[in-house]
Design brief:
The chain has about 260 residues and is mainly beta. The chain contains 2 helices and 13 strands. Strands 1-3-4-5-2-9-13-12-11-7-6 form an 11-stranded antiparallel beta sheet, with helices on one face. A two-stranded antiparallel ribbon has the order 8-10. The longest helix is centred in the C-terminal third of the chain and has 18 residues. The chain is globular, with a radius of gyration of 18 Å.
Length: about 260
Amino acid sequence: MDITTTINVPSDAAYFEGHFPGNPILAGVAEVALVLEALAEEGVAELTLQGITYMRLRQIVLPGDHLELVAKKGNSGRLRVDLKRKGRLVANGEWTLAASAAGSDEVATAVEEVSLLSEIPPLDELLPHRPPMRFLQSIISEEQGALVALAAIPADCPLVEDGTVAAVVGLEAAAQAAAAWEALQRSRDGGEAAPRVGYLVALREVSFFTDRIPAEQTLRVVVRLDASAPPLSHYRMALYADRKLLAQGMIATFLNEGE
């Protein structure tokens, strides 16, 4: 099965509200969500995203962009996805589709809290994200190289449909936790914790254990630095609700040094 279709990103799309004020950029998870919507319109609605072997988000997507999607279904539910703009590759990856996401019995484990700051700055000083695309709510604990935070997807987030979002949208909470952790490190190195724009540029070995996540549900996010060569950093992440594992895998973020 081969699918070729076009994804038009309206200039006034609500996806850009809060991501980022004065510098609208389509969130990487919104890009994946738009691909899922396009696939559903082409008759792949009976399958859900169970895993991402890899996804490279190579170019930022801006208001008014017109993207060409080419999807090729292979064996074992694998789907090859290529997204282009004017012939130039914007994103590509390999996904696993299934009738439903496989559940997990894994529960969240405690991360020993280490007080490295007398006070944690307000989120406005750590993140450039603003509602309704800010999912992070608070930082609850930390250890060297890792951060645990609470998040929730606001009901007025434009990715919410019938009170829920595709599970992949929850990965934005992990990206925001990583951005907050980096801002904290900058403050400890003698700088300011001022927010800086960054991009989610890659996903790898991501598994989903639920199809959709309810809006406003409290989520526990754990990110742990795996490797860093600034401005690129790789994190292991896990996302829980009621201590049950919803998603886990690797994300990579790129910090815009010009911001």
